[in-house]
Amino acid sequence: MNSMTNYPDDFQKCATFHGHVCPGLAIGYAAVKASSGLLKSSGSEDEELVCIVENNSCSVDAVQALLGCTFGKGNLIFRDWGKQVFTFYDREKGKAVRASFRQPSSEREITHNLRKKIEAGSATDDDKRKMQELRDEFTSALISEPTKFFDIKEIALDPPAYAQIVETLPCAICGEQTMISRMVKKGDSMICKGCAQ
Prior knowledge:
This protein is of the alpha+beta class and 197 residues long. It is globular, with a radius of gyration of 20 Å. The chain has helices spanning 9-18, 23-39, 59-67, 105-120, 125-144, 193-196; strands spanning 49-53, 76-78, 85-90, 95-101, 150-155, 168-170, 177-179, 184-186, 189-191. Strands 2-1-3-4-5 form a five-stranded mixed beta sheet, covered by helices on one side. The protein contains six helices and nine strands.
């Protein structure tokens, strides 16, 4: 397993934020690095930079750690599409860059087969060692050659809406404070979506 000191400082920052080193985290790191040539933005103190992610995997933590795009600030937008695709929008420049991950199919097949054996409990120690070696090699490759793994293109994109501060009301059933924009009207009452189900 690679030592943390073998990685660049900014990737170590991502790993500290995420909790461990893994290929998924390296995918997010590589997406940011591969896009930086076109975007030329180093991060977001508020909502200057917006990232639209199409997955909720480990990769998104690298985006948060490197660029300051977070759910709390409203400049991290999640689309549940199951893709390792990242769109970065710079409000000041009115410019958007889309980074779409592509993994070599031969590598994907080998790791898929090993993962199935490990999950089934039929993997040998050699299989587990091989899987860890592949993970480490892939992580290192992503970090050292990020553009090799992404299709990067500038795209037209309407500016994402700024985060809104929305009034809250207590749910008529559970009493928990809920954003009005997320409540459901039931008769004369407003209730949260959890109680509506």
